[in-house]
Every structure is written in C-alpha cells, then in structure tokens.
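> tool_call: predict_assembly(chains=two)
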Amino acid sequence: MDKSELLELKKTACNVRLWTIEGVFNAKSGHPGGSLSAADMMTYLYFKEMNVDPKNPKDPKRDRFVLSKGHCCPALYAALALKGFFPTDEIKSLRHIGAMLQGHPDMKHTPGIDMSSGSLGQGISAACGMALAAKLNGESYRVYAMLGDGECEEGQVWEAAMFASHMKLDNLTVMVDFNGLQIDGTVADVAGLDKLDEKFTSFGFEVIKIDGHDFEQIEAALAKAKTVKNKPTAIIAATVKGKGVSYMENKVGWHGKAPNADEYQTAMDELRAQLKAMEA
Amino acid sequence: MAESKKIATRESFGMALCELAKDHKDIVVLDADLAAATKTEIFKKAYPERFFDCGIAEGNMIGVAAGLAAAGMVPFAASFAMFATGRAYEQVRNSVGYPHLNVKIAGSHAGISVGEDGATHQCCEDLALMRTIPGMVVLNPADHYEMIEAVKAAYAYNGPVYIRLGRLAIESFNDPDNYSFEIGKGITLEEGDDVTVIATGLVVYEALKAVRSLKEKGVNARLINMHTIKPIDKDIIIKAAKETGKIITVEEHNIIGGLGEAVAAVTSENCPVPVYRIGVEDVFGHSGPAVGLLAEFGLDAAGIEKKISELL
C-alpha cells in the first residue's frame, strides 16, 4: 500500500479507538483492552480487506467476519459505524436499555454483525459453518474469525480447528489477537498457552505470525492467506492490550473496566493528539 | 388404525431427511460420529455431498450448524440427546437459540429406552433443557408416521427446532391416510370425560393401550398425544381440564422440567385442576433391555394403567 493509504488506515484506526473509548465510557462498562489491541486488524478488515456493503449488509455474496472474542465489540461497533453500517451516535448508547448495540454482538439487531457471539470458543465454529456453506454453494466469499489468545484455552476452538483443516476450509482465515493478557493475569501465568503457532500448525493450518499493529504486515498476511489452498490459515498477531491509551497498555486491569471521567478525558486527549499528529 | 409396523423413530427420521432432501437443496446433515446410531447414515448414503461428520465434537457441530444456517442453509445436526442437548447445551443456547438461527437439532437415544448403555447415555433431561431456550420449538413424535410429518414441519418452520428420537423399535399406531401434523397442536386419540391422560413420544402407544384397557373396565379416559412440548397446546389442555377435571401426564423423561410441568403450568394459570406426572421420578436410569426398563419404571402399558387406576 502507498503512504497515503497507510496514513488513512492509521487515522481510521485512531478513530475506531476514539469511538471505542466513547462507547465504553458511556456504557460505564465493557472491554476496552482487547478492543484496542484488535482495533488495527478490524480497521484493515473493514476498510481494506473485506467485500462488504453498508447499504446491503445481508448480501449473500459478502465476506463474513465473526468476532469470536465477542466482548471486544466496542471496536467492531466503531469500525461498522465509521464504515457506514449505522450512525456513530448509536455508540453512545452502547449497553443501555433499549439500545441496538448490545454488550456482546447481536446479529439479529445490528447491521453488519454476521454472527452473534460472546461465549468464547463458539464464534470460530460458526465461521467454519459459513466457510463450509460457501464451498457447498460454490461461492467465493471469504470468512474471517477473530479470536483472543485467552479464548484459545476453550476446547471448542480446537474442535473447530480440527474441523476446519479436515474440511480443507481455505476460505477461512482465523486471526488470533495475541495480547498476552486475560482477566486473571497473563495468559502465560493463567494457562501457559505457549507455542500457539505450533498448535495451529499441527492442527493443519497455514500459520503466519505478525505484528498486529503493523498494517503492512496485516496486509501481507491476509494476502498470503488468499493464496493458500486446501487448508485454513491462522494469523497469530502479537498485539498490545489497551494499545493507544498509555495507561491501559499492557495492563490486566483494563480487560473489562470503563474509564472514569478523568481517565476518559485523558484517553480522548491522547488519541486526539495522535490523530492530530497524523493529520499534520 | 394402520397395520402394526415396528420401527424406531430415529430410523423414520433418517428416511424423512432423504425424502425432504429430494426437493430441498438447502438441507445439510451433520453428525458427531454416530451416523449409524442416529440413522443419519440413511441420508449419508443418499446424499454424501451434503453430509458432514463433525467427529466426536458436539459443541463444534452445533456451532458449524449455526454458521451454515447464518449462510442460508438448513442444517439438521444429530447426536444422542444427551450430547446434543446436554454437552452442547450452551452452544445450542448461544449460537442457535439467541440468534434464532434455522438449525434443526435431533437428539436420538432419548430416555431410559436407550437400554443397555445405561445412565450416562439415558437422557431424561433433554426436553427440560430445550424448553428453557427462548424461541426453541420442541418436538417429541410418537411413531413412524408422526416423525415423518414432524421432520417436514420442522423444515418448513423458520427457526430452531429440537426433535427427540427414540432408539427402540415401536409400533406405528397412527393412520398415515388420516393423519396431519401441526406444530403446537395436540392430537386427541381417545375421547373421554372421567380423566385426561396426556402422553408424549415413545410412551404414547403404551398410554393408548392403557387407556383402552381402562375403557373396558368402565373408566372413560381421554387420551391426548402431545407431540409438541413447546409451544404447548394450551387450548387442548384447558379444554381437557374443564371437561374432565383431572389430568395425568406420561413421559419418558424426568418428571422435573418435562411435559408434566409444562401441562401443570397451563392448568395452574388457566384452570387449576390436579395434574399427576407419570415419568422418571428424578432418578438416573441404569443398564438393561429397553422393554424391561420401561416396565421397571412403570412406563409400559401395564405400569401406566396401574398408576392411572391408583390416581383416580
């Protein structure tokens, strides 16, 4: 990609982060840490990679995205709103009574959400089903599933991984947002989920390791995934939980907590400064 | 009544899928390494390109079914009732029920009539589990003909459906030339005003024999076949409560959470009358031949007749 395109993506990702903080702050609850770590990949998916049309969100031929780590929907809602699926104003009522935007993705009521998710381990299975449907019907759409690293502790992830490679679902790309933290501590301390790349390789995946905040690496990995035949691809993306907000970065405590008014202001100031620097 | 023909409803299920698939290209069938037992193998032989064995991984199978449905297919996912509704309960709730996806879940080897495999596989909780999921239709067909029609109705309905299948070969008592199935509509098999017996699934025929025997002894019992546990047929229950004043339910399921409690909820809110529940009385089953177990648990015709007589 050229420099101007790269800059646009970075600016969009910064806006995704701004709206993520806006949503979580107004909700007085939610999951900022993993939303911010996933924001760059979600931005790339919705603004560069995926064939989706905000005016026709149910197009049968569209690419699909399943946020298996459904609690990180604040970033997804931000990306969808900025893409034009619904007004950004909706984000301010995230998690409120009567709001369209639920605490975890709800495909029945939110345009652009391809699968309801939130119970960890389940989204990747649904993504397998969508990819299988494409194969059955001779459709060329691709399916993307984003998982958390902690989520990979769920047994269902590996049931699905076995299924995906057994069925040769080369139209499926699994992206693991490897930020290294989960609720109770570091992933290494809680469950020792090491050698995740080797795990996916042994389950029959093409595995690509990247920096999940580097758009050129994200682009290269997704491009390579499209060339892989007869097996699914897993992109293991090293990320920083809370990325973009200094006091949230790499802090376990910001997994599922909303900023207070002062913290909100600090976060918004920091992100706006980043945006301003990019625009300069 | 049609000529007797013993066939397990799991077999009827497999046959029905094949019939439906002829005209409906969107049907796909999933199993979890039990195709020979759930009888989806009948479909597998006829339509191998639309059959997917997910291996011994029921949670993933339900999720895959959800994804297929989200992409416009109509998946039937089969396993033993214990695993389809028990092990995979949360996948059914969150990946199928919450988004109200068009997934049909078939649970075979339900109830104690699994037989020799014993308690770990004798699922007497599936109806209760599936009833609790908002929007889930719960079907428990009683014989071959009813299963064929139930599968067609499940396909025609746009939303999640649970269908209970039995392992044991049983009599087909419905008359295929004079039978119609409608989701949520109970069927009166015998008229009567002394008491109403409401039965479901595999034990409907046993209840029918019991009620006919009681008629010869002067007890004029009404018998209703409640093939749909959810949405339950309120009208037929309220009418029975008003006209007979007493209801006895019969199910091959824990008396907690199944047909009996569904019926009692309707009567208590609309026309309070005594409701007695015949079923598995909050115990686990155990190994043994299916027919012997049904007798031991009081769910054969003799046991049902005895219990009804005691309750009158």
